[in-house]
Protein 1
Amino acid sequence: MSTLPPVLTIDGPGGAGKGTVSRVVAARLGWHYLDSGAIYRALAVAALRRGLELDDVEGLVETAHDLPLSFQVEGTECRVLLGAEEIGAELQSEATGAAASRVAPYPAVRAALLDKQRQFRQLPGLVADGRDMGTVVFPDAPYKIYLTASAEIRARRRLIQLKEKGLDVNLPDLAKELEERDRRDSERAVAPLKPAEDALLLDSSDLSIEQVVERILACLRTA
Ligand code: DC
């Protein structure tokens, strides 16, 4: 039996509701929260600011090792800082999501970010949100969920989310970008987007956030 703090992994494609669900579940349990996508996004932002090309693996690895990234969590809100600067809005844009998905396939880049992610595993427990949380980063996690939803619903949810943040987006472009990103994330050779063999599959297409949260908490209670 592992003596490490427990982890609940929530993986799945963009727009499935992972972020919101993970934050609410973490707040209810009083556990820590890891937004691993924000780490890949912050790396892409930092690399672009350094003037790097997104296929410059050596430069990306160096940037990953020096990344001055911190998270300030207050309830279900999370501020992301690069150095002293809050980069929340830039981090959330689809352009940054696409850039993150372009730096993510390189094994050396993923390896450089592994420890940063594992450091979040602290008592009383961790909710880890991403693509490879249950397969690669925390393969021994006792609780694993793979959260998905139909492509159309995911694009619509993302549209609402980005509009609320004041970003200028439209549904056809967003649907196309999400599809491209999912394809890139699923087809990469290392740590592709796929359910862990022992993950519980949950389709959130017809469920509210609250219903998804309740189902996940019920799984934890009965596990
Ligand atoms: O979850 P997100 O949309 O913030 O993630 C942005 C990109 O980062 C995603 O398209 C692929 C990459 N990513 C990854 O490769 N592995 C993770 N665990 C999380 C994100």
Protein 2
Amino acid sequence: MPHLTIDEWIKAIEHKAESVRGVAINEATDKDIYYAVSALVTEEMNKNWLQTQERYKEKQCKQVYYLSMEFLVGRLLESNLLNSGLLNECNEALKKLGFNPERVYAQEPDAGLGNGGLGRLAACFLESIASLRYAGHGCGIRYRYGLFEQRIIHGHQVELPDYWLKEEYPWETRKAEESVDIHFGGDIHMFKKNDGSLEFKYENTDKVTAVPYDVPIAGYQNKVVNSLRLWSAESNASDSEMLTSQCSQYYHHLDHKHSIEQISGFLYPDDSMYEGKVLRLKQQYFLVSASLKSIFRQYKKTVRRSLIHLPDKIVIQINDTHPSLAVPELMRILMDEERFGWEDAWQITTKVIAYTNHTTLSEALEKWPEDMVKSLLPRLYMIIQEINERFCKKVWNDHPLLREKIPELAIIADGQVHMARLAIVGSFSVNGVARLHTDILKKKEMKSFYTLFPERFNNKTNGITHRRWLLQVNPELSSLITDVIGPQWIQRPNQLISLLRYSKDSPFLDKVSAVKVHNKVKLAHFIHEKTGIMVDEHSIFDVQIKRLHEYKRQLLNIFHVIHLYNELKDNPKLDITPRTFLFGAKAAPSYHFAKEVIKLINRMASLINNDPAIHDKIKVVFLENYNVSLAEKIIPATDISEQISTASKEASGTGNMKMMMNGALTLGTLDGANIEIKDLVGDKNIFIFGLTADEVLHYYNHGGYVARDIYHTDERVRRILDQLKDGAFGSQEIEFKDIYYHTLYHNDPYFVLRDFDAYIEAHELVEQSYRDQATWMNMSVTNIAYSGKFSSDRTIQEYASEIWKLKRMEK
Ligand code: 26V
């Protein structure tokens, strides 16, 4: 289908609307057209999907499996059209048929199978793996409910279930014949065989069927189509088998079936505090066991050599510790099913598994109660015990200097299984996701492990797919770029650097600026439609969009807004450049403080937006239900990208990269990948403020910070906190005393007050800089020019050559 003309496209869409939806084109709805176009692009992708699989089989090339509890893919129709080389003609055909392409694409549910950074990274990685012609696939869970839908009602967050599969999902193919059985619980029997070796038999396990649903992942115009395999939990006993049974058994059966289906029931929200919930542990084992079984099946079908060669053909990257049961499960399969001895099985396992760490927040580290692991996964528990014993013995014997560290190194300690320790011990590579983050892992969080295994630790700074996050979401900017430097940047994002030649070219800067205004106008319409708030496209669009968490410091942002508001109330004539403060953030349902911050932002929005004394100089907008599709609307319209986490806390950040690539300037701390952005663009093209990671860590280790001192010495801060305590922004039901007490009585653990002054000063510099549009646009284009480094193509290239040892498929 590649070279259909627009007229042929029109015919094909008409025909598909009839054949798949049974409607004539003049009766068709946006939904009908969405399904018709999806069917057309599926046909195109399916051909390449089959061919890609055949080539992998024939060449027996090494493959990477990316195991992740989350894949935040968002909508797929437009990106599939783009990568299949069909987008432009399709758009034209749709318009000629009288349909608005954007509205057609918006018919698709936004697949929210992830919480935020970690899940979206997994989706970007799959796109880059396919675009770079690597053999690599995702393995995840087909949750029936994705991350909750957020509504803001009277300023409060309310969560609704995200039942995204209500209608047919055109991208998935159910592969019932490739189902596998997963076993939980049961009794383990040990036999001694004649040769002295041990054999394990399991009885009375609870059996769950894992059914794969495959989603094609198309590379950019290269005919490669890889797979994302999402597992769904089903009960294997059919309803009809139960017809003959007694009534009580029938209800028992239904109950059992329901509890099995719960395993792929919903995605857990990323909480402020890690909690060991048994259903989550079931989900993790379900993902790991199903994926490994299917990897083995594939290996046996194609390679047909002893499994001792597994590490030459397969590498498994685990996305955080969530799939770290892959270590004992791989050991179990190799020993109990494939009859390897411990040593060989351990050799294979530790050559196959690689682990990525995504956070150093200690409260987020996964630990499972020993008893829970023991009763849910008795055989895995035995294996973890053995891994732990051998490991601790080795440390004791070979590393006398680390003997006293054994309690912090042991995989099983104080009644808990420490998953990060299991992942490090059981893998050949441990990577952080930005330079600073990896350094902190080595020097602090995982210091003793680094002493033991220095060769395992490495950095892979995150990236984002520039095809979705620039080419697709900002077509106007993309074509301006292509006009001046040619289209090669689409395959080689580093070539964006050629834009530097145009960073002082006023006609070019004017065009880039006009595109930004155009995107802001579009977003302004959207905001008006959703919230009724009118915002000025000539105001500075100052944006913070990310999960709500104390360390990300949305509170610091809103304190600045309150400060500006106070200043304007004191002096209504104050000459400031108009600003629009935009927020998007979901709080975990049980995270009380985060929800208070959402309330405060919404409260300030309604006060400020409706205060005639402000004369529209500032507007505050909280857009509900921040997700991938909303990000796609906001990012191209952003002027200021707020990346203001407490230094050392944000492992990398990826929103910072997306906004930079769309010409926004970063206002940020020296944290995560902000540091690498700064190193590239230089101090004059970024607004950096606040404590450094070393300073923050020094305060944590040695004390010396007293939040109350700042309250007493900085009257701007005191005024804001007192306003919160005294109900200046409250109404009868709403008040913000918690924020006041939390900040002052817990000594402001994220240094909001400590960085306040530096933040205000940085904002003043932003404001002055914006007044000089020529300089601003020069800064903006400089940022775009250097953003190529943050393409996930670069990241995947590094994973592939340094960790996975994969070669690209030939063209
Ligand atoms: C933890 C939990 C615990 C409760 C159950 C659900 C759940 C889901 C996820 C997590 C861990 C989240 C860690 C994470 O998302 N880290 C982010 O990873 C990004 C990609 O590397 C990085 O850019 C962000 O800085 C980092 O916060």
